[in-house]
Amino acid sequence: MSEPNPEITDALVAEHGLNAEEYARVLEILGRTPNLVELGIFSVMWSEHCSYKSSKKWLKTLPTDAPQVIQGPGENAGVIDIGDGQAAVFKMESHNHPSFIEPYQGAATGVGGILRDVFTMGARPVANLNALRFGDPGHPKTRHLVSGVVAGIGGYGNCVGVPTVAGEVNFHPAYNGNILVNAMTVGVAEADRIFYAKAHGAGNPVVYVGSKTGRDGIHGATMASASFDEDSAEKRPTVQVGDPFTEKLLIEACLELMATDAVVGIQDMGAAGLTSSSFEMASKGGSGVALNLDHVPVREDGMSAYEIMLSESQERMLMVLKPGREAEAKAIFDKWDLDFAIVGELTDSGRMVIQKGGEQVCDLPIDPLAEAAPEYDRPWESTPAQPDLTADQVPAHDPAQALQTLIACPDLCSRRWVWEQYDHMVGADTVQRPGGDAGMVRVHGTDKALAVTVDCTPRYVLADPVQGGRQAVAEAYRNITATGAQPLAITDNMNFGNPEKPRVMGQFVGACQGMGEACRALGTPVVSGNVSLYNETGETAILPTPAIGGVGLLDDLSKMATVAFKADDEAIVLIGETHGHLGQSLYLRELCGREDGPPPPVDLEAERRNGDFVRELIRGGWVTACHDLSDGGLLVALAEMAMAGDRGAAIQPPEQAAPHAWLFGEDQARYLVTAPQAGDILQAAQAAGVAAYALGRTGGPALKLAGGPSISLQRVRAAHEGWLPSFMSAAG
Amino acid sequence: MKARVHVTLKTGVLDPQGKAIQHALSQLGFDGVEGVRTGKVFELELTDTDQAAARERVQQMCEQLLANTVIENYDIEIG
Amino acid sequence: MKARVHVTLKTGVLDPQGKAIQHALSQLGFDGVEGVRTGKVFELELTDTDQAAARERVQQMCEQLLANTVIENYDIEIG
Amino acid sequence: MQAAVIVFPGSNCDRDIAVALERASGQRPHMVWHKDSTVPEVDLIALPGGFSYGDYLRCGAIAAHSPVMRDVKARAQKGTAVLGICNGFQVLIESGLLPGGLLRNESLKYICKDVGLEVETHDSIFTRRYRNGQRVVFPIAHGDGNYFIDEDGRRRLEDEERIAFRYCDAMGQVTPEANPNGSVANIAGIYNRERNVLGMMPHPERLADPLLGGRDGAAMFDGLVEALA
Ligand SMILES: Nc1ncnc2c1ncn2[C@@H]1O[C@H](COP(=O)(O)OP(=O)(O)O)[C@@H](O)[C@H]1O
Ligand SMILES: [Mg+2]
């Protein structure tokens, strides 16, 4: 069958997402008109997704270096040193649009993709996380989306046997037409056995392993592919279906092969499949590549070169082997019943040359294509500052009533309904399950553990992108710190609207600035990340959502802290300064129906100082429980500790403070800790220049406010645990 | 009245379950099984008395609940 | 040759999925659905040329793998 | 005690059970590949949790036909101790070593959480370290753990004292509310007639280490070591 060869019209070029200027550059590089296969390759290589053309300029400003960094951005995942010759490998990635179209499969394949990014580097995945944003709970599609996304994440992660130990879930009408599904994987590898997506050595075989290639996910070019099968009445679904069983086999087979020294380079086939994997490997290694598509295992008859190169079928990997090692490698993949095919070899031509059916269907220069990838400095405008909001401008509600409302609101209620659908214990190393500050997995066979978290407060970012960017990093830092672990590095997932709008671009620029400042101040460089733009429907953009995935190390598991109150009659100490900042708080939104004011400012020096102090307390064995303060403020954090420990507390707010602001303000850089006595902690705090306040004592069946109401823990728990299950079981 | 609904994956959509079953059959020594596609069947017991109306209703059930029309086709038999 | 196999739960075996679907349908406002039973369907592509032999073979596949005859019934259509 | 852990494609608790067995016995179990035709001479054969063959078709159905299962069945019939946890239980059911069936959870959702179990029959090599009526906590993690057996079958299990565990509440009461998946009579684990084969949905190997939140599971492995040493 010969390759379809339509005329390359302006319409076809536009349909491939290339603008006139970009197409002119294509013509210049080639010195001729591309054929359809080549056009398809340019289209995906220069897509926003693969080229980061709108974001690159700003991503470059993020700090990526520190002594613990082994590999920063630019590879499949970031790598950091965790001591004893071991490394943690991690990254986060979005699958937003596919999850909106088909929530189960979209979310499932998102998990599959990020897992491959991590085990591609030679790491065994040890933890999954997920950051989810849905629309208004009252929106008719929300329930269906939540149900499908959660089932899909579980369906995939549970089957491959990687525990899902942490995440976040938010609801906001701005996500009605564009939900966010961000998945993160953390793996562990030997620090001197990391594999890179770099292919060199002319003559080395290029090998395809995993599932067969089908026509999944060939988008961007609907018209072009429709013309290939005029007899098909059915519109081809572009949805990719995941096969976690095959992924599990692929993990085991790849790790088994990587334990030998047969592999030169390896790369998963993610977005843009065979095209980007072969291109990236060759380009990073300064090689050329010759592929023969007749050897690619296919699932369907009559697939064209265009389809094979652009297919996004899941659970596939491309690797370059040392010459003569093919048989050894094949035996491993045979053992695991996976397809294994030699599909080409490296060359020294610097070109990508593709054959199919005896014809040459593509001949592209690799470096010019990679180097000439567009990079834009898009116009941007900064977000105007919100007018100040003081406590006396915000109505004071009864604290008991306010707590009851907040603890059951969609953004603060228990996520048990979500994480009980995830196997969060497989591997038998989960030392902190979901529901605390960070998930924690023991590094297998050792006494140390990784603390992992994902955080972002999009409403803060909308109100002030710089402060919001700082806050996301700071909250991840606090969640890790609260377990006793040392935060080491972050990954990010930048979810924004249309970057061609200066207002949206300004949010991106501001968030990068804030994140960069926080990463520098807190010593947590960015080692990997992902950008998802154009999350916009009609005129509605999502809230700017730079989700931060943080990883920290606890080097001695006997020094771990958890949020639960441990005993009655212990002192509760509040670390950090409380000003009662109500702007952009959940109190303001849930009780007053307002989303205004500036977000709480983030004092990065205080974050660092207080974080270091809290970690020292934990390491010194001074505290019995620890929890950071975030959404909902002090009383919410206190209630969470009380529920986890199944005992109440009696507290005494300072007399001069306005109770609603003091109890529900969202000031940053704060923690609650418990200890048999407050005295030593207060003294140590004073010595360290850290604000500390003896808040009260644990015990009893209720939360008692001095001179105020007593709030039954049982009622708080019922409200907290009740909202999500009852929302999900309601009709419609 | 009874209705029977078949829900099958659209052509081209990966059917990992079918793939696994095909493999297992060949391991059990059943040769010549060239493909396996899996699907679901729902048998509904309806109080309807009118065939055409019942079909109409079942079609709505398929669209709204029984099938995921993004990746699945359905087929209705009445009676 | 094609074979189609239906596998359904035996009467008396609880069908949690059928029950859930029935409930969901009534929540969606579809009245008069008195029962829902769910099952699986397998479409096999066979190289066989003889109908009777194919049926015989498919029956063995059902007994050995496709159905769990402790809790499920099966039914074979050839052609 | 020398143990063997069978590894099916898609098993994912194989390492977890091996760790728990080694901790109890001091001996590293043999990891036996499903394509092998024989299991080495051992005191205990463990079938681990996970998603053998992706849980496609029916959980455990394809794995039950693995080459190695012929030998596992023969050994079980000769009296070797066989423990199937979660997916391992599903494989034992599908291979006919234990009666009944495991259906989708009543909620149709996968569930991962700690549950209470009442030890109903402690007269076995697996449960000798527990007391009858004792309440223990193990995690469950499954989508298809809804145990089904007909009335006659259930009566037979009860008469022959073959019910190892039932789901119970915090007070140790076997109630419908304590049933996480819809299992007939809250059944969580059963023996064969000779009680050398135990299949159970909950995971004792996940709570055999205090750092993971409890040690109730360790008594099962310690008891096995004592009985099979
Ligand atoms: N989608 C999810 N998957 C797994 N765990 C989740 C998910 N969403 C929330 N959690 C867990 O629930 C707990 C509360 O989440 P959150 O309120 O976001 O915590 P924090 O305010 O400390 O960041 C955390 O332990 C978190 O890991
Ligand atoms: Mg926290």
The largest inter-chain interface, given as chain pair and residues per side, is:
B-C, 32 and 32 residues
Could you give the order of strands across the largest sheet of chain A? Answer: 8-10-7-11-9-12-13
CATH fold naming of the domain at 196-371 in chain A: Phosphoribosyl-aminoimidazole Synthetase, Chain A, domain 2
Residue share in helix of chain D: 10-25%
- Write down the CATH topology of chain D: Rossmann fold
- What's the overall geometry of chain A? globular
CATH architecture of the domain at 196-371 in chain A: Alpha-Beta Complex
Structural class of chain A: alpha+beta
Mean pLDDT of chain D: 97
Identify the CATH homologous superfamily of the domain at 196-371 in chain A: PurM-like C-terminal domain
- Specify the CATH architecture of chain D: 3-Layer(aba) Sandwich
pLDDT < 50 stretches of chain D: none
Contiguous helical run count of chain A: 25
**Sheet with most strands of chain D:** 9 strands, mixed
**What is the tally of beta strands of chain A?**
28
Whole-number total of structural domains of chain D: 1
User: What structural category arises from helix and sheet content of chain D?
Assistant: alpha/beta
Protein traits:
heterotetramer, A: Phosphoribosyl-aminoimidazole Synthetase, Chain A, domain 2, 7-stranded mixed beta sheet, 35% helix, B: 79 residues, 3-stranded antiparallel beta sheet, 37% strand, binds magnesium ion
Write the layout of secondary structure elements.
The complex is a heterotetramer, with 1 copy of chain A (732 residues), 2 copies of chain B (79 residues) and 1 copy of chain D (229 residues).
Chain A lengths: L9 H6 L4 H11 L5 H10 L2 H4 L4 H4 L9 E3 L6 E4 L4 E9 L1 H6 L1 H17 L4 E11 L7 H19 L3 E8 L8 E11 L14 E6 L11 H5 L17 H15 L4 E6 L4 H13 L2 E5 L12 H6 L5 E6 L4 H10 L3 E9 L3 E6 L2 E7 H6 L27 H9 L8 H4 L10 E3 L6 E4 L6 E7 L2 H6 L1 H17 L4 E10 L6 H21 L3 E7 L3 E2 L2 E2 L3 E10 L16 E5 L10 H7 L11 H16 L5 E4 L4 H13 L3 E3 L7 H6 L6 E5 L3 H10 L3 E7 L3 E4 L4 E3 H17 L3
Parallel strand pairs in A: 4-5, 9-12, 17-18, 24-27
Antiparallel strand pairs in A: 1-2, 2-3, 3-6, 4-6, 7-10, 7-11, 8-10, 9-11, 12-13, 14-15, 15-16, 16-21, 17-21, 19-20, 22-25, 22-26, 23-25, 24-26, 27-28
Helix pairs in contact in A: 7-8, 7-10, 8-10, 10-13, 15-25, 18-19, 18-21, 19-21
Chain B lengths: L1 E8 L6 H12 L5 E14 L4 H16 L5 E7 L1
Antiparallel strand pairs in B: 1-2, 1-3
Chain D lengths: L2 E5 L6 H12 L4 E4 L10 E4 L19 H12 L2 E5 L1 H8 L6 E3 L7 E9 L15 E8 L3 E3 L2 H9 L3 E6 L18 E5 L5 E4 L17 H11 L1
Parallel strand pairs in D: 1-2, 1-3, 3-4, 4-11
Antiparallel strand pairs in D: 5-8, 6-7, 6-9, 9-10, 10-11
The site of adenosine-5'-diphosphate has 19 residues of chain A, from β4, β5 and α16.
